[in-house]
Amino acid sequence: MSPAAYLALAAVLFSLGCTGVLLRRNAIVMFMSVELMLNAANLALVTASRMHGNLDGQVFAFFSMTVAAAEVVVGLAIIVQIFRSRRSASIDDASLLKL
Amino acid sequence: MGVQLPFPTPQIEYSLLLPVLVILGAAVVSVLIEAVAAESLRRTLQPLLAFGSLAIALAGCVGLWDQRQVVAQGALVVDGPTVILQGTLLILAVLGALLMMESRVDPAGDPFAARASTIPGSADERGFGARRQTEVWPLFLFAVGGMLMFPAANDLLTAFIALEVFSLPLYLLTGMARRRRLLSQEAALKYFVLGAFSSAVFLFGSALIYAATGSLDFAGIADAVSADPTSGLLLSAGVALLLAGMLFKVGAAPFHQWSPDVYQGAPTALTAFMSAATKVAAFGALLRVMFVALGGAAWDWQPAVAVIAGLSMLVGAITAVVQSDIKRVLAYSSVAHAGFILTGVLAASPKGLSGSLVYLVAYGFVTLAAFGLLTVVRSPAGEATDVQQWAGLAKKSPVTASVFSLLLLTMAGLPLTSGFTAKFAAWSAAWGGWQTGVVVIGAVSSTIAAAFYLRIIVSMWFSEGDDAVVVALPGLGTRTVVGVGVASAVVFGVAPQLLLGLVDGVGVFLR
User: Is A48 within 8 Å of B164 when comparing Cβ atoms?
Assistant: First the structure.
């Protein structure tokens, strides 16, 4: 099977994640969509690594997994804190700052 | 048994990495202090460690002045632009730390919540009272360390890690204001969601560029780009996504939506540091990517960057006119400034590089001082950030009003201030690079911008004020920050050759 198909799959996953962030209104779901985008990037990196026959992309994927884990820690800390203050994780409720 | 790949020991030039290593090392020690030291000890140790490590890193940075070398197996570059950006970042960090230390302007204590985990308005929160927050120091040091790495990064992997290392602590620090905590937490949430989104976009862009070129380091990408000037779909999409991710960090329109909210909600001491330093770090990295990795495809990205530069200048200037909160005015003006700096990037020439660097140095000190000054004008509820509350300020404190007027005029680009030097350097480079249309848009939007700066100045000097608003007497730290900002505005304005000569001396990016 051609590696290009995996790149196409990565693009589809990335677009799904993007759509999720832009359309959903729950902070946790938006956050999950971001994780989907990061994993789409990981898939693209590993595929490209296979295409070019070097290991750079695989190493990058390891780093980005670690970064994603760190991002979960920071993100959930912020979301939990907001939830404790307001009893809601909806993005629309957080509107003290007008645009 | 698998194939044994040769895995030589990497060669690390520790002496050339001194500034970065010192700051990140101090950040780790700072986390350790937070875990083991008693509270009273932490309050003296943490700032001591922060200022000590910043001083050592700054000294190390000065020592790197003549170095031009690719270090750490090609992960980072130490060259002229790196050294000048790192030096600027370290000075901005010292000034930012001075603002974070300030505890005299607010009777409730320093700018950060005594315990960020308490629920706003709860008895639990009141129990901690005016206690000093020390958890901000390790976060601050990590942010500074990441910012030092970002403009020095020589491959997409290092750039991504540096980006995250400085972004994640900033998300948290944004949510830690002592006053108006709901606002601050909301700003943190918005910053985090949009920031994580843009990081993911940056990462996917990197993955596509790697797929197209087979290389992560900038020199390899540059070779692949010049070997195939038609640049296929994969590479174009990758470059577009990578650019979008970086332009988000510099706050250029249409990727600026987060900046007014975050600037307004974050503790002002942090906003000051963030608005100045994030721009310096992110523009440094953007310049390196555009000039080193994508220099061969300049014809392809110049139209897109031209549109974004023009849009940033116009959106920033026009939206700032209708804002009623002074922090939001400064935020939108920083969007406009991002556009002005992008005109320098647009030139895609050594002159464009030095023009952008001059602008970053000039803008950083002035904006830090302007936000620093916002903290001293107070109402009983905290900082008075409504533009109407600043009316008649000249009668209460002529010094504050004069200094703020000077800083605003510098941002507007009045001749004999550093703002004029910066705009001249960036625009003359763009003009020389035949980007005349963008320079014209820049001139128009800086006229619009001057209108709202003047509106604030007029209301400070010629209106009747609100008696509830007072000007607090700041401590030595805030005075130093404002003093440095004013000095830079005047000195680099009256004697522009000092700054221009310094930046011209650093040369271009090392490949």
Answer: no
